[in-house]
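Write out this protein's structure.
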Amino acid sequence: MSLQKLSSYLLRSVVPLLIIAQLMLPLPSYGFSIGEERMVGERLLYTIRSEFTLLDDPDISQYINDLGGQVLDVAGPQFFDYHFFVVKSEQFNAFAAPSGLIFFYTGLIKTMKSEDELLSVLAHEVGHVVSRHIARRMSKQGKITAATMLLGLASLALGNAALSQGLLTGSIAANQAISLSFSRQDEEQADRLSFGWMKALKRNPRSMESMLKTMRRITRYRSDALPAYLLTHPNPEARLDYVKSLVEIDKQAGEHYTKTDNFAFLRFKYRVLSQAIPAGELRVSCANSLASGRDAEQSTMARYCLALLDGQEASFDEAVKQLKLVQGKYPHKNILNVDLGTLYMDSGKIDQALPVLEKAYRRDATDMYAAFRLAQALEKKGKVVRAEKMYRQVLKVMPEYSQLYYALGRLKANQGRSGISNFYLAKYYLFEGRMKFAKQYLKRASKDKSIPVALQNEAQTILDRLKTLEKET
């Protein structure tokens, strides 16, 4: 068959089938119930909170969850409420719990060059959850329980080979690491779904190819100690060939995509890396990117990175100078005003910070980063009633953000309300993963008659739940 005839055949026969496949989500597997999957997800999150730091600043959390929401909007109705987390870890890893909890490790984010690359991995992980690949594989093994499944997931999430071996001992659990690796068919299905969702979002699915090339390179150069992601997502070479075939079909169909604005992604990436890798290492990388000047967008946001680092090192005048240069390139990006107000606040210039943050919040009241920073500035200015109101507004949107509870605990302590302060500090430690301190403060709150009965009961309920989780993790 000639190349021209082959292309014609693919366009007439294969493309319609691919479109149908993308629209038809797999039927659920009931061997491992939805309830059991939710239970496993909750316990896995407990384990990860205890072992890692989650980077959950409002802007970081809103960005990754908004991006995930875009995929879910085109993916259709779901069994679970999805939540996307950034884990502070050098591991090259992304991890999807069956219950819709998806974790991105900073070591993986570091390798990404664009929002489309991040979106391609995110959509791939959603594809595994939607298809219930882990649950379906587990349901085929009659002796597999939720507890055993949790052990396998936790060992791979922690990324410690010795720990994995320790967790996975026993006649049933010994083979779980292997069982949790996705098959070639699983990977193709997740890639096919990801490809279709990216097209529906008008995002260039060719970014899947560039991300897979990164994975292939890591496979080749780290074959002696493969990252957890490549253990659970095997055969990047085969995946790359498959995705290339999809890209070629897409090209033959004459599809065109607009260039993605990577401002939000690069800001997110540098905010993440500034909290995850040594400042000296990041400064060299950003300075080199700025000096190269090969890409205006990359160079400008490398300057943003330097502003972050200067702020961390208390070189506030230099940080403000760098940030204002970035604002000159992006005059309509409101979030940079929040960054500027934060720099003023951190340098002690509350009178300068407050109007900048007020203006940024008025422009976008849905921006919880602006709301939280404004609340902090109001508190520092002594306007505690409005500050508390702002903190509670953020709490409605982000009920698992640990720093909110620390702020509320501090505010209540300053008001002389130590009982309620202890309750908020308990939740701060809970979401920081510092369970020993969380339990100490929860016990105090559960027995403190000076606080509302509802808070006493909530403290006791959390204590009971922690006991259950600790027994089964």
